[in-house]
Design brief:
Jelly Rolls, 14 helices, 17 strands, single chain, 27% strand, 9-stranded mixed β-sheet, 2 domains, 4-stranded antiparallel β-sheet, globular, alpha+beta
Length: 356
């Protein structure tokens, strides 16, 4: 895909290249198989991504058998494997030890690499893959179509992470314009329906698994968060609108919008993750590109929830009514309201999908 090639290394040279990137002898010592303490063989398959222009390995990881990993209490806890039946786990792969070269096209590499891993898993008869997501990659994974199967967690050693699952759910992938969907042409989506329905039931019962529904441009490799609101603005209108924006660097657990406050502003997440909380319960996680506070703003009512930053890496952008009023071109004002309406409509579709 473009200059990047995803593949399964099968030579000593490629194995060493992966080990060098990972800076971990796990790749050296356990190319395909790791021997467990009970002498059972745990199958591990290396996958890698190469920059064909330089010949360098820019990403690598292990694919592991979820059913085998469920025997480990640590792995089971990290990936929430206790949620699944044995039959489901037999059709799920776990992606672990992901290493990515720190390059400008890191987001593109991640999308290419994980998309190809997902497709290969389906080709092999699998139905889903699971990965533990660092908070910094959440928006990339969500852009592909991955969704949480556990709550956002913080640990001393790993920082913030959240287990996420990739399902061949055609309706959802189409709704968010996932770049993976084109590669799934000809797939028998009916074969995955039972597992998809299981996931929707899980989300119904666990509201903290719900995520926002940012609208991503279909033909742009690099996504800028404000496009959710500003896509379609004239050049002059964009400059005027963004000039009125207030950029806020947040602290972990900082309350960004208070319950019962007046809805005089709305915004989007530029970096990181925020949680929307009603009472003491998280009802949705929002990340890069997601809009928040727009309902109270549009209806001019009090807010029904709090919006809270989940880490010190969170950055938000706020707009007030003056940002829209400053637009001189009426067509630009219409664009803003149209984009807000589009986000609301998409949320309605997602909600209906959950409730159906």
């Amino acid at each position: 895909m473009g200059p990047f090639r995803a593949f399964f290394p099968n030579t000593e040279k490629d194995r060493k290249r992966c080990a060098h990137l990972a800076k971990n002898n796990l790749f050296e010592e356990n190319f395909n198989v790791e021997k467990a303490t009970d002498d059972k063989q745990i199958i591990r398959q290396i996958a890698a991504c190469e920059d064909t222009r330089t010949g360098e390995i820019v990403a690598c990881l292990f694919l592991e058998d979820a059913l085998q990993m469920s025997n480990s209490s640590k792995k089971s806890k990290i990936y929430n494997l206790q949620l699944f039946t044995e039959e489901q786990l037999s059709k799920v792969a776990i992606l672990s030890h992901l290493s990515l070269e720190n390059i400008d096209q890191k987001a593109t590499v991640a999308q290419v690499f994980l998309s190809h891993c997902f497709i290969e898993i389906l080709k092999a008869g699998g139905q889903a893959m699971i990965i533990s997501c660092d908070i910094g990659y959440f928006s990339i994974y969500k852009r592909l179509g991955m969704r949480p199967i556990g709550a956002l967690t913080k640990s001393k050693s790993e920082g913030h992470f959240i287990p996420m699952m990739f399902l061949p759910d055609r309706d959802y992938l189409a709704l968010i314009s996932s770049p993976v969907l084109d590669s799934l042409r000809g797939a028998n989506f009916a074969a995955y329906q039972e597992l998809c329905e299981w996931y929707y039931k899980l989300v119904k019962e666990n509201s903290e698994l719900q995520i926002g529904s940012a609208v991503y441009p279909e033909n742009k490799a690099e996504f800028i968060g404000h496009q959710t609101i500003t896509e379609g603005l004239s050049k002059e209108g964009l400059a005027t609108f963004l000039k009125k924006a207030m950029v806020i660097d947040c602290r972990e657990d900082e309350v960004l919008l208070m319950e019962n406050d007046g809805g005089k502003s709305f915004g989007f997440i530029q970096k990181g993750i925020v949680k929307v909380v009603i009472g003491e319960k998280t009802v949705v996680l929002l990340s890069e590109g997601d809009i928040f506070g727009e309902i109270a703003y549009i209806l001019n009512t009090k807010r029904t929830a709090q919006v809270i930053a989940t880490s010190d890496e969170t950055e938000i952008v706020l707009f007030s009514a003056s940002a829209i009023n400053a637009l001189e071109n009426e067509a630009d004002k219409v664009v803003i309201w149209r984009n807000l309406a589009r986000v609301l409509a998409q949320r309605v579709v997602l909600t209906n999908r959950l409730l159906s």
